[in-house]
Amino acid sequence: MGDWLINHPFWHALLRVVLLVLPVLLFVVPIIWFERRLLGWFQDRLGPNRTGNIQFSRTSRFVPFFLKGKKFHLQGLAQPMADGIKLFLKEDITPSAVDRAIYFIAPAIALFPPFALGATIPWGPFPLITPVADVNIGVLYILAISSLGVYGIVLAGYAGNNKFSLLGGLRSSAQLISYELAMGVSLGCIVMATGSLKPSDMLAYQGGAFWGFKESAIGDILANWNILTPFGAVAALIFFICMIAETNRAPFDLPEAENELVAGYHTEYSSMKFAVFFMGEYASMFVYSAILVTVFFGGWHLLPFRFDYLAAHYPAAGDIWHVLDMLNGNSFLAPIWFILKCAMVITGYIWIRATLPRLRYDQLMSLGWKSLLPLAVSNLIVIAFWIFATDTFGPLVGWATSFLAVLILIGLYRSLNKNAESTQLASRTIELVDPSPRRTVELVEPAQVPSA
Amino acid sequence: MNNLPVSPNLIVVGGIAGLAAVAAVGVVLFNNAIRSAMCLVLNFVLLAVLYFSLNAEMLGITQIAVYTGAIMVLFLFVIMLLNLGAPQLLVEKKDPKRFAAIGFGVVLFGLVGSQLLPAFNGVSTPQALDDFGGPHAIGRTLFSAYAYPFEAVSILLLVGLVGSILLAKRRI
Amino acid sequence: MNGVPLAVYLGLGLFMFTAGVVGVMIRRNPIVIFMCIELMLNAVNLTFLTFARYQAVKMPIPGDQQASMMAGQMMVIFVMAVAAAEVAVGLGIIMAIFRLRDNIDIDELNLLRG
Q1: Is A31 within the bounds of a domain?
Q2: Which residue of B has its CA nearest to C98?
Q3: ipTM
Q4: How confident is the model over A85-117, as pLDDT tens digits?
Q5: CB A299 within 8 A of CB A203
Q6: CATH code of the domain covering residue C26
Q7: Most buried one in A110, A204, A339, B154, CB count within 10 A?
Q8: Are A38 and A81 in contact, with CB atoms under 8 Å apart?
Q9: Alpha-carbon gap: C84 to the closest alpha carbon of chain B (Å)
């Protein structure tokens, strides 16, 4: 009985869940700090970048002797800490006109998807403790859970009983639905190339020979990271844009556009409940970058080289390859490389936030439906042809076919766009409501002003 | 059904089924359309869990992605649009024939249940293969033996697409 | 799942279907009526999947044995697709009615009454 209790798979699963959820929770504060600092640099701001410089008094009796006159630089870490303390200690106001039950449930629902999303993502070569569930529907699971992310926002917008938050909720539901499609199709390309829905299979596939160069020197050395292949690069770009939209980050942060909608869906939320939304956003940033890294950037490996293959096939220098393989991530270093890669993606997030202005709503919709979705679908068609041609006629024909397909698609796009552009220009001419000439202010020369 | 061994599986599945039934009642009885929709979402998620318990993991996850991720979001979207435009429309008047309808429901449940459920008394071991609901099995069947129905469904979806655009556009 | 009688799933399916029927009868908001129809469709889906898993009824289906075993799941996929198309068109119709008449109460939409 006791043995059954200890060795029950339930406890293993619980351990895996804790090992997944704890890092996601713990990384929220460092990510906020990182973002503050980077934005401080990008925007030339002095404050958040370096708050928390403490200098102890040289003469006071209250300072112990070993601290006298010491300086400490917290490098801006004080800012997120102050933010957190402020959010926790603020008065928790519940407006009287809200829909109470939904008002309280919404933040909890918003927090659920970011923590559940990573359950199929392996973060190291440790099959016993990661991923939480290596199920054969892994990618579909990611898509399904990410589609639940809309509920927290929509319900928060509804529960506030406020036109602005309702508009924010409506916008976000339209945005998330539109970008989920392109996201799903871009992941579909990788699923087709891999032939499996499991993220762990995708990782194994990315450790194989480089696409189209099997049984050659390049294929022996270079690993098949999806980002390095042409279709994978396109899919990664689409996925990256879609995941920025899914996490409601700038430039896609229309649900909370503060210059139009006060604060969007969380206008009526304060204190801890607002902090929960905030936390959910940063946690989902981290988890989505983990997905991007796993699916496109080779997971926990540092460099796209096949040291394990080389070690097996060139035993003369086998030890060197083994050591390099360990350094490349086939050891306890794996989580470190994985988190570093996630940090790179998060840097991309913040960089884009600092660079691009917010999109207009129709621009957002047309980007999703008219650019990303056709691109993703044509990418899917190209990869399908490529796989077929490679399987039947060999890699060279495969490359040629895909090249031809890309040319055809570009030609098709340009011929379609030529018509669309002319009509669009016609509809976009601006008509002035009152075409009368503007009032002009006549300047008086300084010399003519009568002096006092 | 009387001397059924109570296994942990039965407790878990029974609990989930009970919750799903409560959520289904909530859909019907809540006067507020948003609450009805949320109950339906809960019901669909619990149904997906039940699908997982039937080893149909592919369809369970499709259930979450399609029903809760797309269809119910569409419902919420429309309810909120109406809420923004004319909130008084979402307050329903009580229907006078509701007691008769509930009586009818009870009779329907009793009648069909009493005829149907005893016929499957004692069936508690699944016969299908354990991986009959995986993506490989479903994909192979869907694109070989069921290719024509699949194409027909794709045409249906296309018609739905065109129809909804026609309905939504004010001027074409 | 082992040890769970088929009747649990079937009973839930029947209950959900009944709830859907009652909902269609007593609600007046067409959106909620739509939701009740979805409830009924899902009840049927659950029943299909349950029978597919338990294979309690041996039906002599000509042709591929594998394909006949998957019939329940295929049916569920098609039902889902039909439900999606139905919702897209149905909600479009509701919005169109709302734009035309500023009212969506199902008992007052009686233009076709003779």
Answers
A1: no
A2: B82
A3: 0.86
A4: 888 888 777 777 777 788 888 888 888 888 888
A5: yes
A6: 1.10.287.3510
A7: A110
A8: no
A9: 6
